[in-house]
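Notes from hallway chat w/ T.B., transcribed later so I don't forget. T.B. wanted the structure written out for a chain they're using in a teaching module, and asked if we could keep both sequence and structure tokens in one place. Agreed to drop them here.
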Amino acid sequence: MPKPLERNYDGIIIGAGHHGLILGTYLAEAGLDILVIERRLTYGGGLSTEEVTEPGFYHNLHSINHFHISETPWFKDLGLDNTVTYITPRYEFGQAHRDGTALVLGRDLEETVANIARFSQRDAATFREWNRSAEAITAQILLPERFSEPLPQHEREDLLSRTTMGRHFLAVARRQPLDLVEELFENEHVRLLMLFKISLFGTWLTDTLSKTSPMGSVIRAFDLQTGYQLCQGGSFNLARGLMQAFIAAGGTYQPQAHVERIIIEGGRATGVALLDGRTVRARQFVASTVDVHQTFESMIGRAQLPEDFCRKLDDFKYTPWALFGLHLALHESPRFAAADFDPNIDHALKWSIGADTMEELFSAHQDVQAGRIPKIVQFGAGPLSLIDPTQAPPGKHTTYAWHVMPIELNMDERRYEGFKAEYADKIIETWARYCPNMTSSNIVGRHVYTGREYARELINMRSGDIFMGAFNAEQVMYNHF
């Protein structure tokens, strides 16, 4: 029997992240002979769960919060509900403040509205009103559109403008998120947490300040029926389930095979050439799930592309920030002093820590935009093992901090290692101001993982861009590359 790289296939898919595995499984189930080829030994891309601190402590180094995954068509179509378990936390977003208060947004509307009302009755009424329309828009527009072929912009807007709901959605999508949040809400703490929630829907403060929201990030921030989930056992379990489904469907997986070039013959992609000199042929197609420039510049080559396509390639934008990740193994899960105000803050899936005012939030934006290390420490975090005890040894815990950073920091390796240790200390010091038990005696182990490391490990995350491209109106949905 020939080895995987010694025969031809109907189709070859480059990259064994979740996109490649989903595509490969659908096509294999349809009867095609499919090869998924991966540069690394492991698979899953950003679905990475590793024991990087101490044995038994499982840390999700990239993807953690998965949006509405268990209800997606592909999750059900591929039978993943039988092999992969998702946890839907009751409390989704939490923000503690230096004055001892805390704001928690959960799945229950009445509970969430009551929490907001402790800060502003007017803001609570606003959230209730927008929640009603947001959940209808999500169910009837956003989710169906998410799993359909993008329509041309004029056709999409024409269809949406025929209904009251569609016109409302278009009006909101054309607004800058920051302007809308400031217009709708009066309380600063409420504004801060809403901006944090919006930022997780494919943007960050940079885009919130200056861009519109064509993908509906503002609308989704008011929806409590669809939201983030946690993959039980760690994010890699989703990759494991996808690989099981792909192999069961008859697919072939080949790791440690770096595609150097996509073979083009007669205007068609007919195979791939590997870095070691071997070639593999495809009878029908080659699909790439790696980044835009690696695919079209490195693997295909500009000489084979039309001039207007090259201009589009030159105009493609990447996310202008990277992440500084701190992963902690703990004796105890973080306990907020503000739990006296609202005990549910300890259990929220995603915490916003460190920014108490809009001015502090904008400070980080200004620093990152200028290529500076943020002066004010403010980060996202969450109690992963408190929600999913399988991610740590019995009675122990894991957590993490993700802090936004400039893409490029002009430091050699020695200075950079010192910076990593110093900034990790600053994050822990800031954390301890909100959670008194976040002291050195509570920390079993720590691991710092930044854009410099993950861009080397996952080369499609160019310059530390975790999204492989900016989520701006010029290159999403109907303008998808």
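Follow-up for T.B.: The longest strand covers residues 279-288. Might be a good example for the class.
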